[in-house]
Specification:
single chain, 362 residues, mainly alpha, three-stranded mixed beta sheet, two-stranded antiparallel sheet, 12 helices
Length: 362
Amino acid sequence: MDISDPSSATPSYVHDRKTGKGAVAGAMSSQGDSGIANPSSFLEVSEAEAAQHVQEIRNQTIFSDFLLLGFSAHPGQQPLLFALFLGMYLLTVVGNLLIILAIGSDQHLHTPMYFFLANLSFVDTCFTCTIVPKVLVNILTWHHTISHTGCLIQMYFFMVLALLDDFLLAVMAYDRYVAICLPLHYTTVMCPQRCLLLVAASWLCSHLLAFSLTLLMSQFSFCASHAIPHFFCDLLPLLKLACSDTQIFQVMMFAEAALSGVVPLTCVLVSYAHIIHTILRVPSAGGKHKVFSTCGSHLTVVTLFYGTVFLVYFQPSSSYSADTGMVASVVYTVVTPMLNPFIYSLRNRDMKKRKISKRKKK
């Protein structure tokens, strides 16, 4: 080693693009000469490797593509994240499909409430399938790019299915209000034609609202940095990358949020205010518990869904936090759809009765 040459004494980082692994040539040769390893150098190498790997992914992104950074800043946690997301994904799909199968195969569950629940389970399954498979591919392959068109398509279906969740939860709250507060008129008010109309109107409104925002977003030009600090193409992270004037988009986004968020939530709150008022008038404690058990599971899902959605979207884009947004997004895109089948099947007495009767028949 030439001591007079300073560069020869400095460890040089060599990164293999094919394997994604790195080595420190100078440090290894120095260790071979002296036989003494510097422990701090390995920590520095690990941090440098993670930073360089993320930078390499950025450099590989072509101009028309977006880069979903997601959880790439934590390379050591990738196996754990992959197992966690895969487990939640499988539980969500299997659980919701079992709910749909149970409702479809049992004539006693062919009621308006379970018709809406089957639709909610179908929407939750599609919701998870829109986001999680791409997350799993990104974690497994470290290929974080997504095309401009693919990003807009993912954003469109994400908005459609999120809005459908929103509207269906409001419809289910109205169904519970009619069943508990107007029991004598339930079969007349919630007739099959009206149930189909409510679901069809929810699908139509969701597609119209999502299409208008996606069309506006497709007209934007984006800055040199196409790195999205999120695990899927969400509205607010994309909005922060836009170089165009986004004032009209933000006004429209808040107007649609009020229409699709505040109005359904108001419907839910008003329905449950009447339900609680009716429950308090029931004389016996057993009667109160019986009435509340029919809507307790739905109220739990509503709290989880609306709590996280409002945390993310009812704030200006300038105050949006990527870390807070990702954590809240994991709750309402993965955790809530996964918990829905368990909440409804465990807390709903009709579902439990059907399970018990099937076991007795066997």
